[in-house]
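# step 3/5: fold
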Amino acid sequence: MPAIAPIAVNLLLNPALDRAGDYGAEHAAILSRPALAEASAEIRGWPGYAQTPLHALPGLAQALGVASVHCKDEGGRFGLGSFKALGGAYAVGRLLCRLLGAQLGRPVTTRELLAGTHRALTQAVTVSCATDGNHGRSVAWGAQLFGCRCVICIHATVSEGRRQAIEHCGAQVVRTAGNYDDAVRQADADARALGRHVISDTSYEGYMDVPRDVMQGYQLMVEEALQQVGAAPTHVFVQAGAGGLAAAVCGYFREHLGAARPRLVVVESRRDDCLMQSARAGRVTAVHGALDTLMAGLACGEVSLLAWRILQRGADAFADRR
């Protein structure tokens, strides 16, 4: 394999890192073993579930001078092409069970939803979110799976192909002005005015329960990967937009392996590095502007508060390309 040309990156070692600290009740209230066990049992029971592959890349490992490199390939996840299928759809099912349980005065399971037992009730519910593409497709697919309505907001630069993929899952798609964070605010405002239920992968003050479910669903991917590789890696590199996936990965390793966990590097787009800027400032810090990047799914300028609570002292480093 030919030598790999070096790429200049910014690397910030986390000044607030606490590798020896306990995972603690505060973090377990966000992501935990029991909640993962519940999510894992639920998602593994959905129609079409299959473990996605973990590819070994020996040529890349040799070129980099390391023992091994593995990549988790989410391209086949429920036919949606993204790990996002684990989060948005899971949160839709959880929300519907809570809503219907309150109406019927008893617990409701997703098996009942899948069987169409409460279709008259679920069709009266509309879920919504803002998306760059993959999260909205997951929410739309989850709404279709469990029998409720769905409206998805996309921002100005989301491609027509992504819009069509979301519509293919049965959702109504609304294009808004501005960037992703503007679309988040628009989806929230419309939901409040029209009685919709937001299924967001970004948490903010007053909105925590659903993003927690989204992140919990993501952890199934980490569980699968560790089962496949057979031993904990020394380093994990994970992409970040608002931080939900990165926090799910970080929380899993921190809770399960403690100080013996892998070194976690959070990778962002240079113009959308809200997590790196937050780590540098020691507080949640937003990045403003056009947020232009080829990595469209990472074009997020505002940090998810739940994700930050886990990453603030759990991530080893933050990287973006110069």
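# step 4/5: annotate
The CA atoms of residues 269 and 320 lie 6 Å apart.
# step 5/5: archive (pending)
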